[in-house]
Amino acid sequence: MTSNEISKGILKALGAVVGIAALIYFLYALRTILLYMIIAAVVALIGHPIVMFLKTKLRFKNSSAAVLTMALFVFVIVGLFKLFIPMVVEQGENLSLLNIGELESAILAQYSELISYLSNRNIDLSNNLDSSQLLSNIDFNIIPNLFNAVVSGFGSLSIGMLSVFFIAFFFLKDSDLVERILIAVTPAKWESGFQTSFVKIKNLLSRYFIGVIFQISILLVFYATVLLILGVKNAVVIALLCALLNIIPYVGPMIAGVLMIALTMIGNIEADFNAVILPKVTWVAVGFMAGQLIDNFFSQPIIFSKSVKSHPLEIFIVILAAGLLFGILGMIVAVPAYTVVKVILKTFISQNKIVQGLTKDL
Q1: Are 251 and 182 in contact (CB under 8 A)?
Q2: CA quadruple 146, 39, 49, 74: dihedral sign
Q3: Are 200 and 343 contacting, i.e. CB atoms less than 8 angstroms apart?
Q4: Angstrom distance (rounded) from CA 59 to CA 69
Q5: Which of 82, 58, 81, 80 is nearest to 68 (CA)?
Q6: What is the 3-state secondary structure (H, E, C) of 143-210?
Q7: Residue 42, number of CB atoms within 10 A of its CB
Q8: Is the Cβ–Cβ distance between 12 and 173 less than 8 Å?
Q9: Are 218 and 294 in contact (CB under 8 A)?
Q10: Maximum distance among all alpha carbons in the chain?
Q11: Residue ranges of the alpha helices (H) in the chain?
Q12: 3-state class of 5 per DSSP?
C-alpha cells in the first residue's frame, strides 16, 4: 500500500468521523423538534386505525378523516384539562394560604401516630427511620415551589401540544410521508425490504400503542372506582396519575402505589389516624394491588403477545437491559424499539438461526 493510499484512507476516516460528529451535534441542537416529531408519530400510529375506519367504512376523504381523528384527540385532551384545571386552581388557592410550619407539624404528627401504631404490634421502625433522618431531610417548601413550576410550564406545554398536533395531522393525512422520506435516503438494493419492514412496523406499533391506551383506561376506571367508593378526594385525578405512571414498566407501578397512598393520607391529614386514615389507606392499598393483578395477568399479556408478538420473559429481559443502559426513558421505549429491531432483522437476515428463533411469531 502506497503512502498516497494511506493518506486517502486517513482523510476518508477523518471525514467520516467529522460527518458523524456534525450529525450528532445537529440532532442534539434540534432535539426539541425531534421529540415533537416522535410524539406526533406515536399520536399518528394511535390514530391510524381510526383514519382507516373512516376511509374504508364511512368513505371519508383522506383530509376529512385526518381532521376528524385529530378533533377526537383534541376533545380528549380538553376533557383531561377540564378535569385537572379545577384541581390545580383549588390546590393553588390552598397553597397560597398554606403554612409550611403547620404542614410539617401535621406530617410529623402522622409519623408519630404510625410509629405508635406499629410499636403496639411489636414492629419497631423508629430507630431505622430516625437513623436515616428521612423527615429531617425533606424540604417542605418544595410543595409550593413544585406547583409554581407546573403552572409556569403550562405555556411551553401548550406550544408543544400545538406543534405535536400539527405534525401528527400531516402524518395522518399523508400516511406514507415518512415512508417516502426514508426511502429517498435508502440504497436502491434495500428499498423492497425496507417497504415491507415499514408496513409491518407501522401495524405492530399501532396495535401496541392502542393496547397501551386500553391498559391505561382499564387501570383508570378500576382505580377511580375504588377511590370514589372509599371517598378519597380528587379520586379521578389520582387514578389518572397512577394509571399514567404504569407506562413506566416495573418502576412506574411502585411509584404509583406510593403516590396513591400518600395522596390519600394527605387528603385526610386532619382525621383520626386509627379510625379513619389507617382503614382507608389499607383498602386503597388492597384496591391498588388488585388493579396491578388485573394488569399483570390480563392487560399486559394481551398487549405483548397480540401486538408486538413477544414472550413475556423476552420483554422482561429487554426492558431490564434498556433500564440499566438508558434509565427510565430506556424502559419506556424498550418494547417499541425492540419490535422495530426484530422486524428489520427478520426482513434482512431471516436466515440467521437466532433471528429465526426470536421472530418466528412475526
Answers
A1: no
A2: positive
A3: yes
A4: 14
A5: 58
A6: HHHHHHHHHHCHHHHHHHHHHHHHHHHHHHHCCCHHHHHHHHCCCHHHHHHHHHHHHHHHHHHHHHHH
A7: 19
A8: no
A9: yes
A10: 89
A11: 3-29, 31-56, 62-96, 100-119, 126-132, 142-152, 154-173, 177-184, 191-230, 235-245, 251-267, 278-294, 300-302, 312-348, 353-358
A12: helix
- Residue 2 has φ and ψ, to the nearest 5°, of -80, 165
Closest CA to 219 of 182, 252, 246: 246
CA distances from 242 to 218, 262, 336 (A): 12, 12, 22
Q: How far apart are CA 213 and CA 337, in angstroms?
A: 18
Which region among 90-99, 173-182, 219-228 has the lowest average model confidence (pLDDT)? 90-99
CA dist., res. 296 & res. 276, Å (int): 30
Chain segment 12-34, per-residue pLDDT in tens: 778 778 888 887 888 788 778 88
- Name residues whose C-beta falls within 8 Å of residue 186's C-beta, 6 or more positions apart in sequence: 194
Of the pLDDT bands very low, low, confident and very high (cuts 50, 70, 90), residue 114 is: low
Per-domain residue ranges for the chain? 1-99+140-175, 188-362
- pLDDT above 70 for 131: no
Least Cα distance to 282 among 114, 128, 130 occurs for 114
Amino acid at 125: L
Distance CA 353, CA 350 (A): 8
Q: Give the global pTM.
A: 0.71
**In the structure grid, which three cell numbers stand for residue 188, read together?**
436502491
CA distance 261 to 278: 10
**Cα–Cα distance, 107 to 304 (Å, whole number):** 42
* Of residues 66, 355, 45, the one with CA closest to residue 198: 45
291 in Cβ contact with 219 (< 8 Å) = yes
- C-alpha angle with apex 45: 39 to 48, nearest 5 degrees? 140
Asked whether the beta carbons of 195 and 183 are under 8 A apart, the reply is yes
Query: Chain centroid to CA 168: how far?
Result: 18
Residue with cell 415518512: 178
Residue 20 CB contacts under 8 Å (≥ 6 apart), including other chains: none
Query: In this predicted model, what pLDDT tens digit does every residue of 248-259 receive, in sequence order?
Result: 887 888 888 888
